Amino acid sequence: MTTLAPRVLHALEQFHADHPWDHNAHYHQWLLRQLPRRFDSALDVGSGSGDLARLLATRARTVQGIDADPTIVARARELTAPDAPVTFTVGDALIDIPSGSYDVITCVATIHHLPFSDALSHFRQHLAPGGTLVVVGLAYAQSLGDHLLGAAAIPSNVAMAWIKNKGRKAPRPASMTAPTRPATMGFPDIVRDARRVLPGARLRRRLFWRYTLVWQQH
Fold it and tell me: Which of these ranges, 16-20, 31-35, 48-52, has the smallest mean pLDDT?
């Protein structure tokens, strides 16, 4: 058994290298269901190659994307139609967010790169009255429940990779080329700190090693 686990892990890593799929994009449609049908302005923090920002633009008058990586921001601009109401900025999400308030703020697989409570406080300051903040984040697996949920995601993860790639080998999507880092906060600490900064925030563990947070400004 001690030799089987590393072999299985290596096989899974090789499979996903050959059949990549974007776990974050999996939650984009869910995210849209948390938002109004139409709104004026949106901010996407950690916008990457711009997939979510372009989706938000189907509902918003203007969308601002911000990401710290110049290479992925350049790629986002290349992939976005010139007449789309989307602007991409290179910058630090705690310093360089364009002034003003936003009806919608989204942050997908990015907040673990930032000081968690400071980031939530900053987003709250930029959220318009009645506006909605949606976070899809990564948590560090600590408890038995975390590990069981992670184990349960493995067969679903393999199935999704096979379905999305139609069984064929495929190149990595542009959305998966940005720099990444592992999460360091466990889900209980995330819940505690989030509800301290955002009273009434709704948080839930999700499949594919993610959690979600939804909060409305009053």
Answer: 16-20
* Helical axes 116-126 vs 187-197, angle rounded to 10°: 40
Inter-residue contact 73 to 170 (CB < 8 Å): no
* pTM score, whole prediction: 0.83
- Strand order across the 202-206 sheet: 86-90, 60-67, 39-45, 102-108, 127-137, 210-216, 202-206
pLDDT tens figures, 75-104: 999 999 999 999 999 999 999 998 889 999
Specify the CATH superfamily of domain 25-139+182-216: Vaccinia Virus protein VP39 (3.40.50.150)
Question: How many residues are given for the chain?
Answer: 218
Spatial separation of the C-alpha atoms in residues 118 and 122, rounded to whole Å: 6
Q: Residues 65, 21: contact at Cβ < 8 Å?
A: no
Residue in 101, 102, 75, 105 with CA at minimum distance from that of residue 90: 75
Collect all residues with Cβ–Cβ distance below 8 Å to 137 and sequence separation of at least 6: 107, 109, 111, 112, 183, 190, 210, 211, 212, 213
* Residue in 193, 202, 212 with CA at minimum distance from that of residue 138: 212
Task: Evaluate whether 112 touches 183 at the Cβ level (below 8 Å).
Answer: yes
- Separate counts of helices (H) and strands (E) for the chain: 7, 7
